[in-house]
Automatic annotation (TrEMBL):
Organism encoding this protein: Holothuria leucospilota
Keywords for the protein's UniProt record, in alphabetical order: Developmental protein, Disulfide bond, Extracellular matrix, Glycoprotein, Lipoprotein, Membrane, Secreted, Transmembrane, Transmembrane helix, Wnt signaling pathway
Localisation: Secreted, Extracellular space, Extracellular matrix
UniProt GO cellular component terms: extracellular space
Name this polypeptide is given: Protein Wnt
Family, per entry: Belongs to the Wnt family.
PANTHER family assigned: PROTEIN WNT-6, WNT RELATED
Length: 365
């Protein structure tokens, strides 16, 4: 199947519109995430000199950026696993969604991949995987409990800065430098929205750095603690961006052509960490190749939930079929000296609900 994936990635590479510059990582195809393909393509795109510079001078940074976008895509799939469009790469759904107008889904995917790039590069600095960076530089002044600007001011005893701070500023700058490659018009609304959502992904990480500490002292007395600045887990980043996705603001272009403003004048201006979109999402209930929709036929849903993962919403009113599975597995295992483990066999029953198909009966005229 490797040859088929390679062929699919090549076909996508050849037909990709050249004006999707801000979405640089799609060039490599969601199936391959090939750094070399991305860098070759960047040479042919106008306005992407920053990409070319990084590709030429820092290929190892590009490698981490690409790894990060893959992490972001995987997290996108987790966060939208109960949504009608679940960030799938099947039939190049991701690429087709990104080529549509700026919807909530596009905003979320851009933010997630931008965050992933920031996260991957920053983590590589801390792990010593990049020669361009290492631990973050900061004053190492000894501090006592209650004097920190951090939120974690409930530490007992004395603590001081030490260890390795995550170099978020380097990760942030490299993600911005590479992922914000400009389109031909800096002030068209699509570019402004893409850049805003890219920034939102990076900002969520920056705003949620926290202090992690290690205790020192006899028998865990914790008389002294060494602390360093650390990024949140990427799952937390995904959770925070999912909240932003749910509350995304619909925007339009401002009079100057260089800003975006809420479409509804009663809605507050989005902050740097908010997601924005300009076009309502298409109907993902039924298959539509043009917009990248695979439909929801065959999707697993929650028969008792009333939210987006519930059968009523996810199955778009078509209902779901209940299936019951029974399996046997070891249980109540006991260890007998020496060295035997005896287990009972238990039967477990699992009930799942699968969205029904579409009504294909021809309508009577």
């Amino acid at each position: 199947m490797d040859w088929w994936r390679g062929l699919t990635g090549l076909m996508f590479f050849l037909i990709l519109p050249s004006n999707i510059i801000g979405l640089w990582w799609v060039v490599g195809s969601p199936l391959t995430f090939d750094r070399n393909a991305i860098c070759r393509r960047s040479k042919k795109l106008r306005g992407s000199s920053s990409q070319r510079d990084v590709c030429r001078k820092e290929p190892e940074v590009v490698e981490k950026v690409v790894e990060g976008t893959q992490i972001g895509l995987t997290e996108c799939q987790y966060q939208l696993r109960y949504s009608k469009w679940n960030c799938t790469t099947v039939q190049n759904s991701v690429g087709k969604v990104l080529k549509q107008a700026d919807t909530r889904e596009t905003a979320f995917l851009n933010a997630m991949t931008s965050a992933g790039a920031t996260y991957s590069v920053t983590q590589a600095c801390s792990m010593g995987d990049l020669v361009q960076c290492g631990c973050a530089d900061r004053p190492r002044k000894k501090k006592n409990h209650g004097t920190s600007e951090d939120k974690n001011d409930d530490l007992e005893g004395t603590w001081e800065w030490g260890g390795c701070d995550d170099n978020i500023e380097f990760g942030y700058s490299k993600s911005k430098e590479f992922m914000d490659a400009q389109q031909k018009k800096r002030n068209d609304i699509r570019t402004l929205i893409t850049l805003h959502n890219n920034e939102a992904g990076r900002t969520v990480i920056r705003m949620n750095m926290f202090r992690e500490c290690k205790c020192h002292g006899l028998s865990g007395s914790c008389t002294l603690q060494t602390c360093w600045r650390k990024m949140p887990s990427f799952r937390k980043v995904g959770n925070l961006l999912k909240e932003k996705f749910n509350g995304a603001a619909k925007v339009t272009g401002g009079n100057t052509g260089e800003e975006i403003i809420p479409e509804d004048s009663t809605v507050k201006f989005p902050t740097a960490a908010d997601l924005v979109y300009s076009t309502d999402s298409p109907d993902y209930c039924r298959p539509n190749r043009k917009v990248g929709s695979l439909g929801t036929h065959g999707r697993r849903c929650n028969g008792s939930a009333l939210d987006v993962g519930g059968c009523d919403i996810l199955c778009c009113g078509r209902g779901a079929t209940e299936y019951e599975f029974t399996r046997q597995e070891p249980c109540r295992c006991r260890f007998h000296w020496c060295c035997d483990v005896q287990c009972d066999t238990c039967k477990t029953t699992q009930v799942v609900h699968i969205c029904n198909g579409y009504d294909t009966t021809p309508r009577k005229s």
